[in-house]
Amino acid sequence: MKKKMIGLTAALGGAVMLSACGGEEKEVTVGAKNFTEQFILAKMAEIMLEDNDFQVDMVDNMGSTALRQALESGEVELTWEYTGTGLITYNGEDPIADGEEAFEAISDIDADQGITWANMSDIDNAYTIMMREADGEEKGISSISDLAEYINDNPGEMTFATDAEFGNRGDGLPGVEETYGFEFGSDQVNEMSYGLNYEALANEEVSSAMGHATDSRIEEYDLFNLEDDQQFFPSYHAALSMRTEVYEEYPEIEEILQPLSEELDTETMMGLNYQVDIEDESVDEVARTYLEENGFLSE
């Protein structure tokens, strides 16, 4: 009887060991910055990874620099990042307007720092020049070239709202004016805190303004982004940025999130941001509904 008990104990112990070896949990920490778009993208990644048997820890509401430092230290292992931020802010490189070139450049640079980029999407949260839809239609302006032509033909008429940073940096207003061959007069440029520029434009206090391409207020206030037809603004395409050791341990992450990155674009992201910012839906609800409606989750 004693022998049987010992044998049973040994068998159970072996089964537990086999179970532990075969069912080792896959764990990853996802990070996000402190604005709506980042919350949504991170939540989508979390839901899709959990749907594929990952245990996900979330670290969000971080500034760009803090998130990058967390990725480098290993506190965060995976995040959605922007190509322009990676090149310009983190590595001090010159801006690149072409999305594919920017992605390839930051992939090469960050590879030496143990960071792998993957799954570039068509979300481009770049700087943009905005107008009211009705005003653009009335004046026949749909691109920055159109705006430049109108300003040159009607000096002193158009006004512009900007924050201090965009108004003075080389890849901001001075660069736009130089590239497109026009110039606002000093009396036509209204400098204000970022965020007020959307309200100033909507309230007809100015006739044009700077912004970010996926901001939900563009739709809310019936504004539109002028086409950057000379491709001046640097690419800020959203893509996965992860620690290389995690990428090598879990190469399936790229495949799991590939359908999402292929489906998302700037217009779609603006709509998702709108649901959270303007319609007060929860990030979890918006993310999960989008994934379910597009068939990205298992039944």
Automatic annotation (TrEMBL):
InterPro entries: ABC_Gly_betaine_transp_sub-bd. GO terms for cellular component: ATP-binding cassette (ABC) transporter complex. One of its GO terms (molecular function) is transmembrane transporter activity. It comes from the Bacteria. Pfam families: OpuAC. Signal peptide: none annotated. This is Osmoprotectant transport system substrate-binding protein. Residues 26-293 form the ABC-type glycine betaine transport system substrate-binding domain. It comes from Salsuginibacillus halophilus.
